[in-house]
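Lab meeting notes turned into a lecture example. A postdoc, R.K., suggested we walk through two folding results consecutively so the class can see how the record format repeats. The first protein's sequence and structure tokens come next.
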Amino acid sequence: MAAESARGRRQPWILLSPSLATISFLLIIPMMFIVVYSFWLRTATGADQVGFYLDNWQEVLTDRYYRDILFQTFQIAFYTTVICALVGYIPAYFVANTRMRSKTLLLLMLMLPFWISYIIRTMSWINILGSSGAINTFLIWTGAIDSPISMLYNQTTVILGLVHYLLPFMILNIYVSLDGIEKNLTEAAQSLGCNGWQAFREVTLPLSFPGLAAGSLLCFVLASGTYITPLVLGGPRDAMFANLVFEAIVTQLNWPLGSALSLVLLALLGVLVAVYSRYLGVDQIAKSFR
């Protein structure tokens, strides 16, 4: 009996061992290397000095330059998330409630952007907004302007590129939430005297908040950690925090400083996710509509 009991206790761990080994090999061990690297020191000769130094952390945490870039990163991510939520709810609602037979086709069209490289999708905006792009060419052809308008390499184009990248994530999350709502709940609300808008506000919108909250959290985290979009569409003043990590590791080959920067961003996003789940989670949002 004792042997069978011990075998029963070990069985879940045996079944979980492939997943635990994969997570350890691909996530935990690399993260430990990054933590160790962050305490090394980059010398003037270009070599990494092994040891336990706080110089990188002191530079990252005390230099106002990094704080300003971090604030700008979260600001851009917030604007992107808000725009994705406002723009993405309408198509998600349409797809979830459409009576068209081609509903599967609509979902396929939503997933088409994932089949195209993120870099290609980002660089396509250069052909649209550039000096010789589609918009400037059309405006010059119609006589509306005499010379090209500068529309690239600013914070607005960075947000535009991030919305283009993240909007499908928001739409799919909201769609899954809306599709799970029983249709007879809206009909019951209307039978009790609610008009269409009241039924949406009192029934559909609160019940769709799990998808909206999940999509917002996903968009914010992905926007905060991106570096391709500001690198391609932004100017020198529109860098985001991930660009600093890229610059330190790839350009300067300063792995210790890049490791400290990446850990700071990871820690702050982790805190934001924890606070969001604790105080602004789905259950808390849903309660405010009751």
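The second example is placed directly after the first for contrast:
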Amino acid sequence: MVEKLIKTFYETFGEGGDVRTYFAPGRVNLIGEHTDYNGGHVFPCALTLGTYGIVRDREDRTLRLYSVNIDSVGVVEVSLDEIAATKEASWTNYPKGVVWAFEKRGFKLTHGMDILIYGDIPNGSGLSSSASLEVLTGVILKDTFGFDVSMVDIALIGQDAENNFNGCNCGIMDQFASAMGKKDNAIFLDTNTLNYTYAPVNLPDAKIVITNSKVKHSLVSSAYNDRRNESETALKELQAVVDIKTLGDLTEEQFEEHKGAIKDDICRKRAKHAVYENQRAIHAVEALKANDIETFGKLMNASHESLRYDYEVSCEEIDVLVDLAQAMPGVIGSRITGGGFGGCTVSIVKNDTVDTFIEEIGKAYLEKTGHEAEFYVVDIGDGAGKLG
């Protein structure tokens, strides 16, 4: 893969020079959805799918960016002295946003670069292709210019770029998982404090299967920001009657006691999801550590129910996939993963059921929706870094 990309790099930008290669993974969140901006816990893991970068220094102040995935756009040239988000900039707004966020912190780029990008994360699938590209850019800048930043800093810079340069009010989870991933482990992250632990994902008789609905979504233009605003409204009303900083501070019992303070029915449903989902994430990690995979699966199922009815970020096609999966013997648990409004489901499937799962659900989904699903039996990989 890397050798082929280097060949394409030379064909695109010309021969010679010191060429460096980098990789940043995508992520799948096992449980804890839409809790990361509500001060709760998440439980993502890095994938072996992700974004590759091939980089060479330039002597001027120009960034030349080329995506193998979107080759019709061609090479996009950006002056380091004119970093601004534009609709015409297409995908390059993500790396530009990271440059902007670094420079805002006083880290100055002294020269330009030629950068070739290739990602094997399906675009719009909810597996964090944008966060992967942001973290990749952060790692490239840290290595190239010797910036004194940690991998947690790179995650925060990526989030800043997405929030304030690209206009999507995402939480920290996606960038954190890409930057801090660890092979065969998921990350139990308290998004309120950024305290985290690694939890081994031991599935001796099962696999993680991601199903891509092929319904694309864009978090910037979707109702994602609306959900965040609704949650914040509920939090403010709860704070009038109980001493909390985030929705993640509440137990289920405390929420039920004080939920009457939330005036709007929709905002109350959003807050209920945030509180209950946070507790599900905590209990799910406890179950995994106790090798109680059945309980973990039940919590995944309950998570989808909440995302479907309380947070309302699912859609018809995703619900079809989840309903089909949950009804199949050998499926331990299944739910939507990612920001929602399309994208992917994540399922834990017993080894002897995986082939049947892919065949039967693929067929039934096509019949019911007219879309052809894609399936990925995934491995949990390491976080972002330099390859060579």
